[in-house]
Amino acid sequence: MENIEDLLQLQPIVTKQLQTIFEKNRVGHAYIFEGSKGTGTEELMLFFVQLILCENPRLNVPCETCRNCKRILSGNHPNLHQLYPDGQFIKVDAIDTLLSEMSKTGLEAGRKVYVIHSAERLNVKSANKLLKFLEEPEGNVTAIFLTENINAIIPTIRSRCQHIKFRDIPRNLLIEKLTESGITQSMAATVSMLTHNVEEAFALAKDESFAQARKTVLKLVEATFKNVHEAMLIIHEDWLPQFKEKEQVEIALDLMLFAFRDIVSIKANSEVMCTYPDTLSVFKDAALRTSFNTLSTQLQAILTARRQLKSNMNKTLMMEQLILNLQEVKSFV
């Protein structure tokens, strides 16, 4: 388990919420922890289970040294049962086994806890099988359902659980996690603008095609501050051959939008955290030579192109028009 300081930094509201539940002795019979991967759902689940089973909690934090805490961390506590999907679904047989374990009289005294991982994978039969036990648990029992999407859990289970919503991981923490895994600061800063999911961000950062897309976008942005002919050449020689699918163009336009937002942010505050820290000197120069009104109009031009893309406008015509629009409004201060 991460220490309390890390949990408070990652999920301050949820951590405090769980501590308050424990402090006021209001531990319920069922919870749904909803959050995307990397947001701390499993870490906070372990924290909560440790807290309610700990022999010596202090200031609403588990001691981590008592017998119960150690057994929870090692996965050997007889009152804690965790269930994972087997393939695509959580099957009825697995629920039967879980309920059999939960009803055994040989378990230790105190609260029993069962955790359903990827609870959205409960099929209708397994969910209905679990529902009766959820409504009428035998003894002092708490259920925790972990999911990325609460709406994928059947309504009869949702309505019987307290919903604990996890926020997206803060951008600075995501960048920190990525750089600790060997991703460059510049790439981490870029992918953290496209996703808050740690695994998705890491996969994107390691994708060579995304690295090339990023390079092409930055090449075009720099050209728009030079001359229209160079920008048009990049459109036909680099952009159009690389971004053939609608989804690829959409991401590329988003990356372009982030670049112009960087320039606006740098103009307002040179110390701001950028999407492209490796192009800081180029963007600072553009910020010095371009007015806020011009940058605002250029941002609107990119947003217009995004809307045109959704209306299935010809991609070549759309990009040529975008470059002309970016050039027409260019003025220097």
Automatic annotation (TrEMBL):
Q: What Pfam families does this protein map onto?
A: DNA_pol3_delta2, DNApol3-delta_C
Q: Name one GO molecular function term.
A: DNA-directed DNA polymerase activity
UniProt keywords (A-Z) are: DNA replication, DNA-directed DNA polymerase, Nucleotidyltransferase, Transferase
- The EC number(s) given in the record are 2.7.7.7
Q: Which reaction does it catalyse?
A: DNA(n) + a 2'-deoxyribonucleoside 5'-triphosphate = DNA(n+1) + diphosphate
Q: Where is the DNA polymerase III delta subunit C-terminal domain?
A: 239-327
Which is one Gene Ontology cellular component term of this protein?
DNA polymerase III complex
Top EC class per UniProt? transferase
Q: This protein is called what?
A: DNA polymerase III subunit delta'
